[in-house]
Design brief:
mainly alpha, 5 helices, globular, two-stranded antiparallel ribbon
């Protein structure tokens, strides 16, 4: 799941001003995508658990908070960066995304997770 996480973050890096913003964008994109498959409550529960697990080793994610509907996503990025710095926040977000994908992978398998959040691109598109 670590490789998938890095690929997802790299795909956001071109539009992001820094590594934390790229990781945040990737995490939010996956959160929205998984909400379609496991429902908003399921995605919220998955990412809440991942945030809880990750906050033990990455204090920068302790300032982050999951928002529910209608504005699903993650808030507190600026506060985390101000307190912990861009690199620590980016590392915490990367670890959180990896943890969430790993938790889901235990339920449905890593190959299914990959297809859900990073579908293959059509060579003709």
């Amino acid at each position: 799941m670590q490789e998938l996480t890095r690929r997802l973050i790299a795909s956001e890096a071109a539009q992001a001003p820094d590594p934390a913003a790229a990781a945040h964008a990737a995490l939010e994109r996956v959160f929205r995508s998984l909400s379609r498959w496991v429902g908003p409550a399921g995605a919220h529960a998955l990412f809440a658990r991942a945030l809880t697990e990750t906050s033990v080793t990455h204090p920068a994610v302790g300032a982050l908070e999951l928002r529910g509907q209608p504005e699903m996503g993650l808030s507190g990025l600026a506060a985390s960066i101000a307190t912990h710095g861009t690199d620590a926040t980016a590392a915490g977000l990367e670890a959180t995304l990896t943890a969430a994908l790993g938790l889901l992978g235990r339920l449905v398998g890593d190959d299914v997770v990959t297809r859900l959040v990073d579908p293959p691109r059509d060579a003709d598109a």
